[in-house]
């Protein structure tokens, strides 16, 4: 579905309405302008007719000579009106005088005072001397139409220039007015999923204040819900540690002193369950810290130093012969821009995940590449792509037969995201036909 732009819709609507108003006003103005021009030109015809009356009066006094000569003199060019044509006619219709640029043929058969439109001319007729003579002044209608069209084009051409200028100004004004909305949109778009800070509202226009207030209310509710969830997980884990440790000690004591094999077997099963619960409480504590952490505090952590300590600790506390191979040459210079506790939690979970789900007959490989990315590779069956995408979900296990909590990679993912790093999974591992590979890369310290 195509979403229409508010800015585009406003600009098109406003420019269209303004254009229609301009066209309507232009049409009305053209109508009024045409009437006014016709009135002015008609008045010019009347004035020119008045100027010819003295000539007709003189013709009346010399009427006998004009009849004798049988010559009809043209009107003198002193009038200097190239668009107006003149005739002075006797009451019998005979043309006594005419302008220099027309033939002697009369304008009309009937001699009636007033205006007439005759054969492409606008003619004004005025009688004098009680109807003995008639003065006729004519103007070509083409001249009138040309004058009207030139005047209208002089009015419309600026309008054609005003429309795009108006469109540009409306576009700029609408864009400038909608700028607070665009800023709010950018602020929302740039926020990550873990950024729940309130939106700035002090400089927002009145129309956006309800939206900003609703967003801030939603942010506060989400923050409170997440805080309550973290507090519950953290408090539950803290409260479980002491009783679980106490129960575990009592169970181990029972195994040591009991002489009944059945009792010792049941106590051993209880011990395993308590150890799983103990691991779960530890993971919940780590997860609550990961959710609340801000890792880029200016500290750096040496990955190789932490790995050496964790590997030694793991080998002392387990009864497995599984090998861990660290490429010390590549890892020696690798440092992460996170505090040491967070880096240790990340590495511990990666190491536990590789050892728990990897094949015991194949070593776990840990190395760094030229881009300062950490690689942890273990041997296992190929994982489906849909399962790879779910591995960072909480309580998601690579193998449901495993005794893992399903929180290790979720904890790693949370820490890495808070440190602006990237976490990538590969199965099969790169350059291998099977296995699982985890790649972590943080920005430069």
TrEMBL record:
Coiled-coil region: 260-290
Key words of the record: ATP-binding, Coiled coil, Kinase, Membrane, Nucleotide-binding, Phosphoprotein, Transferase, Transmembrane, Transmembrane helix, Two-component regulatory system
Principal location listed in the UniProt entry: membrane
Family matches, as CDD domains: HisKA
Top-level class of the enzyme under EC nomenclature: transferase
Residue ranges constituting the Histidine kinase domain according to the UniProt record: 235-445
Segments traversing the membrane: 152-174
InterPro entries (alphabetical): 2CSK_N, HATPase_C_sf, HATPase_dom, His_kinase_dom, HisK_dim/P_dom, HisK_dim/P_sf, TCS_sensor_his_kinase
GO cellular component terms, semicolon-separated: plasma membrane
Enzyme Commission designation: 2.7.13.3
Bilayer topology annotation: Multi-pass membrane protein
Superkingdom of the organism of origin: Bacteria
Any one GO molecular-function label of the UniProt entry: phosphorelay sensor kinase activity
Localization, UniProt: Membrane
SUPFAM superfamilies assigned: ATPase domain of HSP90 chaperone/DNA topoisomerase II/histidine kinase, Homodimeric domain of signal transducing histidine kinase
Entry-linked PANTHER family: SENSOR HISTIDINE KINASE YKOH, SENSOR PROTEIN QSEC
Protein name: histidine kinase
Organism per entry: Amphritea atlantica
């Amino acid at each position: 579905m195509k979403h229409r732009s508010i800015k585009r819709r406003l600009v098109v609507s406003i420019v269209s309405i303004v254009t229609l108003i301009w066209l309507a006003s232009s049409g009305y103005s053209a109508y009024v302008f045409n009437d006014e021009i016709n009135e002015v030109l008609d008045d010019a015809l009347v004035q020119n007719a008045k100027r010819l009356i003295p000539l007709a009066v003189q013709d009346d006094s010399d009427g006998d000579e004009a009849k004798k000569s049988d010559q009809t003199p043209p009107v003198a060019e002193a009038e200097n009106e190239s668009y107006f044509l003149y005739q002075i006619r006797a009451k019998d219709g005979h043309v006594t005088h005419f302008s220099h640029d027309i033939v002697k043929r009369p304008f009309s058969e009937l001699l009636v005072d007033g205006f007439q439109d005759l054969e492409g001319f606008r003619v004004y007729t005025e009688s004098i001397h009680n109807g003995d003579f008639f003065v006729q002044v004519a103007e070509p209608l083409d001249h009138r139409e040309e004058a009207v069209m030139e005047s209208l084009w002089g009015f419309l051409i600026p309008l054609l220039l005003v429309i795009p200028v108006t469109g540009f100004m409306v576009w700029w004004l609408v864009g400038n007015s909608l700028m607070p909305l665009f800023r709010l949109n950018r602020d929302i778009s740039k926020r990550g999923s873990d950024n729940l800070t309130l939106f700035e509202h002090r400089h927002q226009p009145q129309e956006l204040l309800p939206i900003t207030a609703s967003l801030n209310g939603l942010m506060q509710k989400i923050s409170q819900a997440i805080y309550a969830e973290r507090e519950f997980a953290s408090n539950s884990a803290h409260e479980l540690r002491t009783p679980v440790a106490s129960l575990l000690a009592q169970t181990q004591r029972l195994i040591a002193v009991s002489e009944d094999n059945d009792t010792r077997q049941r106590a051993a099963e209880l011990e395993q369950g308590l150890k799983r619960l103990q691991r779960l409480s530890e993971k919940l504590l780590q997860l609550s810290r990961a959710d609340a952490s801000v890792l880029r505090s200016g500290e750096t952590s040496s990955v190789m130093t932490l790995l050496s300590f964790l590997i030694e600790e793991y080998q002392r506390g387990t009864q497995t012969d599984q090998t861990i191979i660290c490429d010390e040459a590549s890892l020696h210079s690798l440092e992460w821009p996170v505090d040491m506790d967070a880096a240790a939690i990340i590495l511990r979970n990666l190491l536990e995940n590789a050892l728990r789900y990897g094949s015991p007959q194949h070593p776990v490989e840990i190395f760094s590449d030229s881009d300062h990315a950490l690689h942890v590779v273990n041997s296992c069956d190929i994982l489906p792509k849909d399962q790879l995408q779910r591995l960072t979900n909480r309580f998601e296990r690579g193998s449901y037969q495993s005794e893992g909590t399903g929180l290790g990679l979720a904890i790693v993912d949370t820490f890495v995201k808070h440190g602006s790093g990237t976490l990538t999974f590969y199965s099969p591992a790169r350059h291998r036909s099977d296995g699982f590979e985890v790649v972590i890369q943080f920005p430069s310290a």
